[in-house]
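Incident log, structure service

09:12 report received: a user says their structure output differs between two submissions of the same chain.
09:20 pulled the input from the user's history:
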Amino acid sequence: MLSFEHKKSIFRSFSQLQEKPISKGRINYVYPESRQRGKILITQLNSSGNGYVNGKYMDGKIIKEKGYQVDPRGCICIKDFSEEQLREVVEIAMMSMSGKEETERAHSDDSGNETDWQEISDQTYFEQLVRSCLYNWLGYGNINAPVWFLGIEEGGAEIWRNKKKTLEESLRIRSTFRLQMDFRHVWEDLYNISLSSFTGPNVWRYMAAFLLQLEGGNVDVQHINDYIFYSKRLGREDSNHFLGEMMPLPKQSKKSIEPYQSIWKSVNDYYNEVANRRLSLIQQTIIQHQNIKLIVLYDQELTKKLLEYFATIEMINSWHFRNESYKLYKVWLENERDVWVLSTPFFGNGRVSYDGIRDAARRVLDVL
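09:34 re-ran on a clean worker, output below:
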């Protein structure tokens, strides 16, 4: 990734742009010759090297051809752009804002109203930080592994339970994540939390139990603890599994929007803005990675949302283990490939047992 200074030098080489410092050490670049409503061509360039180019006036064909990811605000994130890519996107943005050729059209939101880039520039630093974490990360482990686990969201143990990071510090770290991250690296190196210090039940133990059964290992407390906390095999980038989350932000409670109430008024507002795009990202990632064979869903709300999102599904089997309900589906993807989806009780709060998990893994082995 190019440095802050390198990117500034590139933007300063365009004589048509005017550099305008804003709050928190960030910089905007204004294009006075713009014939569009907006004059800000580059916004929120900051010391991390992140920033955004105004893409809302670009023609859709050019956006598709160049592979630009334009968010609902009309922003193109330039965090990982090369020098050549930066120069090109600035030139395209200038053409679109000056009304030249076919790049004159403006992108609008669903209501038909254009996004006001001054409003984007005026967003609070906290909101910008939060939004930088929404679509850059899916989970821990090997994203092309045969087994995926999907949950709703993380509880933010580094913030509220272990108190190693403030919310802002955690979000800063999360804003640098890639789609897949190494579980041990994040928790021990970035959050400074020793895995061996964890006590009590958590969803990781049931994941480990399922994986141990699939791998033909001993499924008991000693081996489960070793798998997670000592051998540290869970969620590694070279592993046979991936631990994904539908929603990207850490929260203490699924039912509360805190601590993001300054951005969304309710959990429903948060989901309405973010969930479909996250589901699309999950779906496309599964389609693109051919080795994925099984997705384990351990939240009923997530099961409903994900199955509704896929076009063609069939329930192959359902069973009860004591009072635990399990369902096995086959999902057909757009690329004429299918994956299995196992719906289980929630991995915790007494809703699932190790015996039930072992039984489910044995049943899955019969069809994989």
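09:41 both user submissions now match this output. Likely a transient worker issue. Closing.
09:42 reviewer note: The first helix runs from residue 4 to 12. The two ends are 40 Å apart (CA to CA).
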